[in-house]
């Protein structure tokens, strides 16, 4: 069976919103056991714009990054559990700028502690093509540091 592209997977998810969990539901112990701890995140020092493909708007910029998601700073308050199809403009140390597409889910959102006009938004990567993940990892390795 053919693997869906991130665009197809995200659009499929958007069409099945009834399958989404209740926004305030807390995971049970057995649900928590199913999911491993999140990978460590590192501060991302490059300017990487996150653009909503469907709504044709800039959402924000990546602040920290891991292999399974990222935190971004945004002027928008995005609802938790919302799914988005986005493109991310990544710098690459040798190949120059590159753009990748991925499907994401908003995991959490809160006001940024140093600037209340910005939201800090935790995003989980739901769908990404292998070459895009490789670009994300290369950029992360080149422009990240542990805090």
Structural commentary:
It is a single chain. With 147 residues, the protein is an alpha+beta fold. It has a single domain, classed as predicted glycosyltransferase like domains (Thrombin, subunit H). Helices cover 20% and strands 38% of the residues. The protein is built from three helices and eight strands, in the order ααβββββββαβ. It has helices at residues 6-15, 29-34, 130-143; strands at residues 42-44, 49-52, 57-65, 69-74, 83-90, 98-111, 119-128, 144-145. It has a six-stranded antiparallel barrel. The longest helix is centred in the last third of the chain and has 14 residues, at 130-143. The protein is globular, with a radius of gyration of 15 Å. It starts with 5 loop residues before the first helix and ends with a strand. Residues 14-27 and 29-35 have low confidence and may be disordered.
N-to-C SSE string, H for helix and E for strand? HHEEEEEEEHE
The coarse overall form would be: globular
CATH top level assignment: Mainly Beta
Rg on CA atoms, Å: 15 Å
> Main sheet, how many strands, which sense, barrel?
6 strands, antiparallel, barrel
Give me the number of helical elements: 3
- What is the level-2 CATH architecture name? Beta Barrel
Runs in which pLDDT lies below 50 for 5 or more consecutive residues are: 14-27, 29-35
Overall number of structural domains: 1
Share in helix: 10-25%
**CATH 4th-level superfamily:** predicted glycosyltransferase like domains
The structure class reads alpha+beta
Strand order of the largest sheet: 2-3-4-7-6-5
Amount of beta strand: 35-45%
Count of β-strands: 8
What is the first-to-last residue Cα distance? 42 Å
The overall pLDDT, averaged over residues, is: 78
